Amino acid sequence: MTVTPFQIAVPDDVLDDLRTRLARTRLTTASDSTFWAAGTDPGYLGELVAYWADEFDWRAAEAALNAYPHFVAEVAGRQVHYIHIRGVRAEGAPAPLPLILTHGWPSSFVEMLRVARRLADPASHGGDPADAFDVVIPSLPGFLFSDLPAGPFTRRGVAEIWHTLMTETLGYERFGAFGGDIGGGVTQWLGALYPGEVAGVHTTSAVVTTDFADRPPTVEEQKFLDDLDAYDEKDGGYSEIMLTRPDTIAAALMDSPAGLAAWIVDKYRDWTDCGGDLESRWDKDTLCTVATLYWATGTIGSSFRQYYDYPRNRPVPRITVPAAVTLSNEPAFRTFPKSLAERIYPDLRHWHRAERGGHFMAHEEPEQVVTDLRAFFGPLR
Q1: How far apart are alpha carbons 219 and 213 in whole angstroms?
Q2: Epoxide hydrolase N-terminal domain spans which residues (predicted)?
Q3: Pairing of strands 133-138, 97-102
Q4: Comparing C-alpha atoms, which of 4, 96, 8 is closest to residue 296?
């Protein structure tokens, strides 16, 4: 399998067209006087669009991203983009443990960058050299520089691609896995399918089993499931259209960078543990970096495929490899009962109900995530 070094290089004409479109943005009128109550606030969106058009320096952001070692490889006949940072091995220390980090939606490899260097070179960040990891951060299929799979997008299917990437392309015999959201599902399938190669799985969002035939939900578990349904009723509009009519909304977002930004930042604010202050977690430069990556690659529509194909997913079976959960503090999982995780993970070794950090935990609380990853994987090296 051919591995090719890769650099991000957005053409000038794409950036010129982007600025022209941003300059011609037409903003809507807020539907509710309460700030952000009806979705992305038009006032904030206007500020972000103006910054994106006039102040954001994409070339500086691009150079910073290219400071990481990017590669593309053909796996199962499709291009997979990934960052691969070799761990720094100190004299006398064990070999770094390979670790694959998988992002979710509406995210990208950028979510994992704040933990990447800390994991690969702990000594340079106040850690023990013995805790070094070889870090692999792929872009999910259909996201940015990775092709959609040949068949349906399922968590299990992505896990199969990741296993090939780690074992056949990169030559690792044993590795750990970490992720949240879609990445959490992929991580769990890696543990379920490949217990011989996967040392352990660590997620920031636990999976709710749909099979209660043998053991009905407890009172606490049923309350959580009911609360989750109630939350989805208020938050699920975005997912319903992507589940049923993704190409309709994609047509608008592919044509309007302001619309694209609104679609993304609505979730970044709602799902982030930011107390309503989006930029306490995501500064404008990072928001514009993520939005530009989606815009330049034209992949917001293909990122919806995992929603449209969601009914093709099957419940994750019990995962026998060692497992860890750093439970995010986002509304949907804040009260997740440990007992639900234990239904999936009979060998749950690490359970941390985080007081800070939401859907994008690795970006929001990198030190917390790094500490938990080191604690969990340390005995498994």
Answers
A1: 16
A2: 3-112
A3: parallel
A4: 8
CB 209 within 8 A of CB 217: no
User: Where are the chain's structural domains?
Assistant: 3-380
Residue 227, classified by CB atoms within 10 Å of its CB into exposed (0-12), middle (13-18) or buried (19+), is middle
The architecture of the domain spanning 3-380 is 3-Layer(aba) Sandwich (3.40)
Query: What's the CA gap between 170 and 168, in Å, rounded?
Result: 6
Nearest to 239 by CA among 286, 188, 231: 231
Please report the beta strands in 18-159, taking only residues with DSSP state E, as ranges in sequence order.
70-75, 78-85, 97-102, 133-138
pLDDT surpassing 80 at residue 206? no
The pTM is what? 0.96
Sequence-distant (≥ 6) Cβ neighbours of residue 282 within 8 angstroms: 265, 268, 272, 274, 363
CB 220 within 8 A of CB 337: yes
Q: What are phi and psi of 375, to 5 degrees?
A: -65, -40
DSSP 77: T
